Structures are given as structure tokens and as C-alpha cells.
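Bumping my old thread because nobody answered last time. Still need a sequence for this structure:
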């Protein structure tokens, strides 16, 4: 799992997940719209909406855009009929890949996702082909300089976290879905601002990749994430630290 975690952290810091701000705002707006439609427009009563708005703010999304997305989700500013779809497939060396999408046209998105897999040496699979390999978890990345490791470990575990470990220049905290908010609240109470706080899918096992296959998988993941319909991508690969560092320098 280390390689996957390193990739997530590198992607976050270098902004690789969304190279174009317009595309990023589009994804964030869709997440807010769907959350508001499902649970209402009050973030105090709608946890998913609160997460979506917090993420938008951390990415400097304008307040007007956020408010407009909430209104759309509540049916106050036009109809936004987004459908949630998970695409599953394989990359180089049999790496399992999951893509969560919000789309207004599932046929168009499916075609685009299929083509992206094929261009980068992978293939789109049937529903359920790889989903069983992943577990839903809460994931936080906390800057290393924000707190001592022992203090963070104690704080996080007391709040219900499953694990805390150092990952490069950040601490990674994992929790269950049920304790995610408790951990988030504990960090906030102690004045700790995580670089990211999300519900993600964590692979139960990983595929070790060399530089060649690692390069192919990273390019596939980047290409998938450039699609505005794709909200998140995860994969079950592991790349050694030195190889990952070399690949990161190629960007």
C-alpha cells in the first residue's frame, strides 16, 4: 500500500490530479450538487455536503460557485441530473483500478473511460471485477511539521483511528468510515489542519511495479483524472520509494 499512498501524496502536493483549475472546480461542483440533492442544503445536517464544501474551499473555489452548486443540488437553480457510476478495470501488470464518476451522459463517459484505458495499455472491465479488492476508509494527510508523531498517534487513536504512519513529509491517518468524523473533529479541536481529509478506497493487497510498469500506471491514472466526469481514481499498486522518486522527477 505504500506506493499507492506515496502516489496520492505526490499527486496532492504537485497538483497532478487536476492540472486545469476549471476542471477541478467542475468536479468539486458536482460533488456538492449530489451531496445537497441527497441530504439537503444545510452542511450542519448533511455530513457529505460539509466534506464537499470543505474540499472546495481548500482548493480556493469561489464562494459564489459553492453557493450556486448547493442551490442546484436543492433544485433552486436549474436541474442537474448527475448519475453516480463506478468504472472498474486493469492497468499494466494487472493493477486493479477503480474510477468514481458523476456524469450527465453515461454512454459518453463510458466511451471516454474505455478509450483512456486502451490508449494506456489497460482495459475496462465488468462491474464488480475489482471492487472486492478495496475497503472503504477515512484517510487524512497531516503535515509532518504540524505535530509530533507520538502526540498525533495518541490523539488519533483516542478519536477512533485505525492507524497512523509517517509517509514522506506527511503523516497518514486511516480510520473506519464510522469514525472518520470523530478523527476530523479531534484534529480540528487541537488546531491541526490536514492537507487532505477524504473517504477513500484502500486496496487489501498490492501489485509491485518496476519503473516501466509504474510509469504506465501513473500515466493512466493521470489521464483518467483529467476527465471532468471522474471524481476520484484509486489503484492497488506498490512502487519502491527510490523508483517512485525517480518517476516523480520525470514530471
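Sorry it took so long. Here it is:
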Amino acid at each position: 500500500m505504500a506506493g499507492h499512498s506515496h502516489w496520492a501524496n505526490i499527486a496532492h502536493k504537485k497538483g497532478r490530479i487536476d492540472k486545469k483549475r476549471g476542471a477541478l472546480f467542475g468536479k468539486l461542483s458536482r460533488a456538492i450538487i449530489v451531496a445537497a440533492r441527497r441530504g439537503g442544503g444545510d452542511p450542519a445536517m448533511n455530513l457529505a455536503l460539509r466534506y464537499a464544501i470543505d474540499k472546495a474551499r481548500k482548493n480556493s473555489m469561489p464562494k459564489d460557485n459553492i453557493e450556486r452548486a448547493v442551490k442546484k443540488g436543492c433544485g433552486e437553480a436549474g436541474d442537474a441530473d448527475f448519475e453516480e457510476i463506478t468504472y472498474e478495470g486493469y492497468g499494466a501488470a494487472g493493477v486493479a483500478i477503480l474510477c468514481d464518476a458523476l456524469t450527465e451522459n453515461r454512454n459518453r463517459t463510458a466511451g471516454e473511460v474505455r478509450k483512456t484505458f486502451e490508449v494506456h495499455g489497460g482495459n475496462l472491465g465488468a462491474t464488480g471485477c475489482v471492487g472486492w479488492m478495496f475497503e472503504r476508509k477515512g484517510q487524512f494527510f497531516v503535515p509532518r511539521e504540524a505535530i509530533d508523531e507520538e502526540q498525533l498517534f495518541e490523539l488519533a487513536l483516542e478519536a477512533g483511528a485505525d492507524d497512523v504512519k509517517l509517509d514522506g513529509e506527511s503523516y497518514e491517518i486511516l480510520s473506519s468510515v464510522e469514525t472518520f468524523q470523530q478523527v476530523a473533529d479531534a484534529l480540528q479541536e487541537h488546531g491541526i489542519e490536514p492537507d487532505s481529509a477524504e473517504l477513500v478506497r484502500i486496496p487489501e493487497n498490492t501489485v509491485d511495479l518496476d519503473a516501466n510498469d509504474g510509469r504506465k500506471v501513473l500515466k493512466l491514472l493521470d489521464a483518467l483524472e483529467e476527465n471532468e466526469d471522474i471524481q476520484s481514481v484509486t489503484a492497488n499498486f506498490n512502487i519502491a520509494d527510490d523508483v517512485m522518486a525517480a518517476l516523480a522527477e520525470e514530471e
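Residues 21-39 form the longest helix (19 residues). Let me know if any region looks off to you.
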